[in-house]
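RECORD TYPE: inverse folding
INPUT: structure tokens
STRUCTURE:
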């Protein structure tokens, strides 16, 4: 089910991300299609030749759990996802509403052949929910239908056009958008892993954040202050490995007070290959913030400088994040900090700034007292530098843009040890029990 409609008497509708709803719709379609009969009561996504298989619909579609061969809901789903793949952030409003109206129009056009189809009715209710959640008017412009892929014997078929566009290629092959994961390193450094674990590390020297078949990212750390155990990232090296069809190998390197808007060879794209434009770099704040888009692997990277530290954030396709061997097991974005290198974020001893002062400074930037707030307080106390509030704020902004599930934005930890990921106070208390109550009870 896609949740209750807005006028439900059972409570407010559950707010979900766009990707979540479309994935539910598409999964329903594929699940019911797999459960269909072998007598032609199924449909298939467009094959690589760009054609569809059309078979007579089941005589009594209201009793059928499969997608009718004439029901075009999968095409509607695909067109909607393709139209919204690159819409992120608060400025997507008008374009997103246009995509929703187009999606709704597509479902109305295929309504007659989709009667009784679960995927179709799930889509209709999902669109209604999203229109309400995003304050979209039912009246307004719609986008023209997307052109279907050309046949393989054409001069330039779908594969040759989109082989260096990972998200479109994945959608074409699987009928759904790809999954994504987020990792970040900022401040002391603090690491948010692809699995939403959160560690504060005392790592010094060079450590790999990522080491897979497509990317190598290395962070070099140095002490935040003389005699301190805490460290900050002072250098970042990012290698985009050679991909024959799309890009030449490219190296990006940033150091304190040198965050360039170009790769090491002076270029700003992936080179002269046909897919060279699928790797690009742009400056969002001169000398302080750059964004690197690697469309050929469905990945976006943000590099920032705040105060005397560098930060790194990435949104990577699941396939890309998991493309490594057993020998590449040391990756802070995958496994977090080694146990021997982890630190508590609880302010202890004498710092350069009183803890209460640090909390007041951090609260101005981070009103929610989650791990980003804890990290901010730790960094300001340890370093005495109020600019670290901007490091935590920047990491939170990147997470808001890059996380596939907005409900996982805030992570709560008790004393830096037991990780919680729930806004519910009751659940928070229950999850705290194993860390405190049970330990005290056993000790007693």
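DESIGNED SEQUENCE:
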């Amino acid at each position: 089910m896609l949740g209750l409609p807005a006028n439900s008497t059972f409570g407010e509708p559950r707010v979900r991300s766009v990707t979540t709803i479309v994935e539910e719709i598409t999964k329903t379609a594929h699940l019911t299609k797999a459960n269909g009969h072998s007598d032609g009561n199924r449909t298939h996504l467009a094959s690589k030749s760009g054609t569809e298989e059309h078979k007579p619909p089941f005589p009594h579609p209201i009793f059928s759990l499969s997608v009718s061969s004439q029901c075009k809901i999968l095409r509607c789903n695909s067109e909607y996802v393709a139209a919204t793949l690159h819409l992120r952030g608060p400025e997507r409003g008008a374009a997103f509403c246009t995509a929703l109206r187009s999606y709704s129009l597509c479902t109305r056009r295929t309504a007659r052949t989709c009667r009784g189809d679960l995927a179709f009715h799930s889509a209709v209710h999902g669109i209604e929910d999203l229109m309400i959640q995003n304050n979209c008017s039912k009246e307004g412009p719609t986008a023209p239908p997307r052109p279907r892929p050309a046949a393989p014997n054409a001069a330039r078929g779908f594969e040759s056009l989109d082989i260096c566009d990972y998200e479109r290629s994945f959608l074409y092959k699987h009928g759904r958008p790809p999954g994504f994961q987020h990792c970040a390193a900022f401040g002391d450094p603090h690491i948010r892993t692809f699995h939403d674990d959160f560690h504060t590390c005392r790592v010094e020297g060079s450590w790999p954040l990522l080491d897979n078949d497509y990317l190598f990212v290395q962070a070099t750390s140095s002490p935040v202050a003389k005699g301190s155990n805490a460290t900050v990232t002072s250098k970042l090296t990012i290698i985009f490995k050679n991909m024959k069809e799309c890009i030449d190998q490219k190296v990006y390197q940033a150091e304190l007070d040198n965050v360039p808007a170009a790769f090491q060879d002076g270029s700003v794209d992936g080179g002269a290959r046909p897919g060279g434009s699928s790797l690009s770099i742009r400056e969002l704040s001169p000398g302080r913030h750059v964004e690197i888009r690697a469309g050929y692997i469905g990945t976006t990277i943000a590099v920032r400088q705040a105060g005397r530290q560098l930060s790194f954030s990435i949104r990577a396709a699941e396939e890309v994040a998991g493309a490594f061997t057993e020998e590449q097991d040391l990756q802070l974005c995958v496994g977090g900090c080694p146990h021997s290198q982890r630190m508590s974020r609880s302010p202890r001893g004498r710092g350069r700034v009183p803890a209460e002062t640090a909390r007041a400074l951090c609260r101005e930037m981070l009103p929610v007292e989650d791990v980003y707030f804890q990290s901010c307080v730790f960094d300001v106390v340890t370093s005495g530098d109020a600019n670290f509030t901007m490091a935590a704020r920047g990491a939170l902004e990147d997470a808001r843009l890059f996380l596939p599930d907005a409900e996982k934005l805030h992570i709560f930890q008790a004393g830096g040890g037991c990780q919680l990921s729930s806004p519910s106070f009751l659940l928070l208390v229950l999850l705290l029990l194993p860390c405190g109550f049970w330990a005290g009870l056993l000790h007693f």
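NOTES: Residues 228 and 284 are 32 Å apart (CA to CA).
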